[in-house]
């Protein structure tokens, strides 16, 4: 079946966070991680059937939902999840906050591999914990883990959790099994639990397969918590549905208590229907999406090589978020983002949003029709050429 990712679908005026946040109608938003594509037809059809029923009361998560999660991860990633390990919640960010609340106390340290997804920082801060930054090494246009520094940070008696972003947002790395094992072994040695944010797990490209951290060994499974959702891969963030996977019963009980304390335990019926359809019937559409995103990335790389060769577009192994080294512009990330908005009517995310190591970079969302991407790159070029 063929799927249409080229049609430009108007989103302004639909209460879209992405499109309706900029007040000016001529701004092109390429910032927040939200795609400009309709979701899989099977998901739309499932939602239409559910809406036609017309009653949207409190929702009991059915067996079909758990079957869909189990089946998807077994087929797609070779990871066998037991439904008893799953705690449902409204999103991966609320999940992370609840996990931190459950497994730390105020004053504890949570390790983050920076630059990293900005909501990690607020989730740590809001639970009274301290950020411990394990800065990623950036050499030769590629990021790697600084394992020596990671060992030092994990050995800190106040360190309790490592927030692992796999695939990594914003730098686009898909961690290899070898890298994941080394990180996991360091954490096991010092009694630090791994909390894996794997929300972008479906969005990987040629030669860079996603490996669930918890799938690598029984020890890793028992000493980790995984947060996932179809929201990024199927453009369902507004459906407010996610899962926390915790195999250890004691850990899971504490997380379930925190999810209830944070009042993020009730999921909505449309989210349940959307996830079930996505995981049961959305694989073909997802493969077509990944191929389209891969071509968008190639288009982006080619454009920069031709028009902006002094700016490095980092390899994109996973996600649809291009991480671009703009230090040649001679200005800070925030100032550059302001210039792009004011002079180019282009909205991007400044690298400083992602903490230590983000200065001099911008993040650009390429999950849009290629015509829209081309317009965004033209706007970017005109500003950078001044």
UniProtKB/TrEMBL annotation:
Question: Into which family does the record put it?
Answer: Belongs to the class-II pyridoxal-phosphate-dependent aminotransferase family. MalY/PatB cystathionine beta-lyase subfamily.
Keywords noted in UniProt? Aminotransferase, Lyase, Pyridoxal phosphate, Transferase
- What is the enzyme's class at the highest EC level? lyase
InterPro entries according to UniProt? Aminotransferase_I/II_large, C-S_lyase_PatB-like, Class-II_PLP-Dep_Aminotrans, PyrdxlP-dep_Trfase, PyrdxlP-dep_Trfase_major, PyrdxlP-dep_Trfase_small
Query: What does the organism's lineage look like at the top?
Result: Bacteria, Pseudomonadati, Bacteroidota, Bacteroidia, Bacteroidales
Q: Which GO terms describe its molecular function?
A: cysteine-S-conjugate beta-lyase activity; pyridoxal phosphate binding; transaminase activity
> Native species of this protein?
Alistipes onderdonkii
Q: What is this protein called?
A: cysteine-S-conjugate beta-lyase
- Domain named Aminotransferase class I/classII large is located at 31-380
Pfam assignment, any one: Aminotran_1_2
Which cofactors does this protein require? pyridoxal 5'-phosphate
Q: Which domain of life is it from?
A: Bacteria
For this protein, the Enzyme Commission number is 4.4.1.13
CDD domains listed in its UniProt record: AAT_like (cd00609)
């Amino acid at each position: 079946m063929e799927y249409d990712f080229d049609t430009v679908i108007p989103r302004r005026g639909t209460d879209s966070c992405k499109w309706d946040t900029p007040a000016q109608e001529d701004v092109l938003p390429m910032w927040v991680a939200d795609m400009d594509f309709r979701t899989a037809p099977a998901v739309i059809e499932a939602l239409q059937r559910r809406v036609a029923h017309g009653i949207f009361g409190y929702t009991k998560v059915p067996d079909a939902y758990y079957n869909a999660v189990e089946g998807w991860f077994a087929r797609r990633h070779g990871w066998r999840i037991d439904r008893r390990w799953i705690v449902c919640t409204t999103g991966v960010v609320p999940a992370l906050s609840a996990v931190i609340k459950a497994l730390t106390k105020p004053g504890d340290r949570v390790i983050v591999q920076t630059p990293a997804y900005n909501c990690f920082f607020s989730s740590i801060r809001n639970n009274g914990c301290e950020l411990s930054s394990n800065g990623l090494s950036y050499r030769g246009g590629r990021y790697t883990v600084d394992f020596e520094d990671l060992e030092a940070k994990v050995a800190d008696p106040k360190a309790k959790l490592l927030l692992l972003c796999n695939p990594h947002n914003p730098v686009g790395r898909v961690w290899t099994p070898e890298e994941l094992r080394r990180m996991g072994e360091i954490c096991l040695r010092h009694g630090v639990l791994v909390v894996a944010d794997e929300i972008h797990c479906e969005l990987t490209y040629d030669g860079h397969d996603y490996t669930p951290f918890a799938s690598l060994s029984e020890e890793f499974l028992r000493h980790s918590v995984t947060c996932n959702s179809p929201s990024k891969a199927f453009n369902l963030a507004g459906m407010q549905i996610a899962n926390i996977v915790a195999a250890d019963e004691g850990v899971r009980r504490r997380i379930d208590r925190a999810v209830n304390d944070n009042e993020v335990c009730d999921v909505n019926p449309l989210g349940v229907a959307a996830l079930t359809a996505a995981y049961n019937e959305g694989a073909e559409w997802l493969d077509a999406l990944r191929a389209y995103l891969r071509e968008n990335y190639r288009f982006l790389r080619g454009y920069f090589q031709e028009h902006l060769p002094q700016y490095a577009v980092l390899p994109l192994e996973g996600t649809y978020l291009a991480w671009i080294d703009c230090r040649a512009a001679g200005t800070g990330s925030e100032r550059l983002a302001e210039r792009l908005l004011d002079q180019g009517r282009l909205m991007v995310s400044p690298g400083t949003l992602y903490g230590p190591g983000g200065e001099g970079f911008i993040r650009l969302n390429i999950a849009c029709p290629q015509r829209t991407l081309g317009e965004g790159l033209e706007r970017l070029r005109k500003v950078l050429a001044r």
